[in-house]
Amino acid sequence: xxxxxxxxxxxxxxxxAAPTLITRAPGRxxxxxxxxxxxxxxxxxxxxxxxxxxxxxPRDARRVQMIALDFDGARSEFALDAPxxxxxxxxxxxxxxxxxxxxxxxxxxxxxxxxVVQGDVPLGSGLSSSAALEVCTxxxxxxxxxxxxxxxxxxxxxxxxxxxxxxxxxxxxxxxxSALAQQDHALWIDCRDLSYRNVPLPRGATFVxxxxxxxxxxxxxxxxxxxxxxxxxxxxxxxxxLRDVSLAEFQRREKELPPVVARxxxxxxxxxxxxxxxxAAAETNDLAxxxxxxxxxxxxxxxxxxxxxxxxxxxxxxxxAQAGCWGxxxxxxxxxxxxxxxxxxxxxxxxxxxxxxxxSRRVGIAPAVYPCQAMSGSQRVE
Length: 382
Ligand code: ADP
Ligand code: MG
Known about the structure:
The protein has 382 residues and is of the alpha+beta class. The protein contains eleven helices and 13 strands. β3 (63-68) and β4 (74-79) form a beta hairpin.
């Protein structure tokens, strides 16, 4: 387990001095609201109890020297007074470079520092280790520079770093959750105007993430096709985004759309409604309704949006057969990656054991299973 003490010790080993600052930023899992973000709709992630940690110390030279403990202590370094370039031999460092670049573009004077970075968010599993790294970095630089930058701005500039510096087209949800979530709450985000609300989670149950361990192959091309289909549908309805179409309006006119486009639109429109219903269920501590909405979300993603796969469907089916499971759905873009399950607290240990065994038997791959606590967003630890 990573703690302030362990990361401080690692920094001292590497740089023979004590760090002056430690920051931490969590990964996230989306509970409901999938493929709604680019339709100006709603999402409902939690920040999880797995995080990226940075220990840092300012230095006189206007340079940033980085050590990644999870990459065998690999080092990368860049100057702050020259254009910041990528280091593709140390791709992990591009997230730090990108954040420094985005901060400088906003006029923040980024100080020279030494840092070590370490995390326990699994890489590339869909729990957003990349956003955690960006937000952890931004929190550190903003503290050291004593810059007045809101958490919403931190999330935005981290997204900009990932989009324009690293070169990955992601929405704002991951960075937003990592920067703004609150303990024991989910974060409801309106992706149109970035207004948000912390929603208390139902008590007595745990969100358990299961990773199919299936490589996501098709995801980029299919993602682009889905986006184009949603834009097609929005144009047909004469609105800026599918967010603006009510279910009644959709049902009145769905026959005018090509069948595939209509299915895509139906997913987005019903999914937005499910997010709002899930918020209401959470606020009334209604686990059964929350779980049922997760199940409906999965069916809609599988049948209308068609972004599930055999492994995810198997995982969800196995999960739902377990005692104490209120609901299960794929989370993230689909075609592999993770499922999220709502499980009664007393049943979690048995659930983890049974799902791992059954999935291995049926699919021939051992899944990774992570019971998650909803944690607060990024913070200065000391
Ligand atoms: P994810 O779904 O986890 O966000 P990405 O491919 O977007 O997957 O980001 C993973 C990348 O983030 C890694 O390849 C690495 O460059 C960087 N990263 C993640 N975790 C760490 C870590 N512990 N230390 C350094 N870099 C990390
Ligand atoms: Mg990522």
